[in-house]
Amino acid sequence: MNTVNTRKRYPKAFKEEAVRLSYSSGKTVAQQANDLGIGENQLYAWRRAARDRDRGGQAFPGNGRARDVELAEWKRRALRAEQERDVLKKALHIFRPNGK
Predict the structure, then answer these.
(1) How far apart, in whole angstroms, are the C-alpha atoms of residue 32 and residue 34?
(2) Which DSSP letter does residue 7 get?
(3) Which DSSP letter does residue 96 get?
(4) Cys-Cys link to 33, which of 12, 21, 43, 55 (CB 3.0-4.6 A)?
(5) Nearest to 47 by CA among 24, 66, 70, 74
(6) CATH code of the region 12-99
């Protein structure tokens, strides 16, 4: 059996959005990483890189591939739609008589 170890590459926009969501979504880092389909340690590494960038370093050098950027945009939109749906479900449950 011939297996090739390949690292999955993510575009800069995906990493930046993942970091932003990890701080603003109200979910734990583990939950957010799972939602994005990445490892928890990877998300922590991206958060460190973004923090270092804010201190004058360079986070996520390179600009990725155009297809990867488009895929990241679709994933971001899907995640946002899921989050909005979850909020609406919670609101519906709160305002429904007798919680049914």
Answers:
(1) 5
(2) -
(3) S
(4) 43
(5) 24
(6) 1.10.10
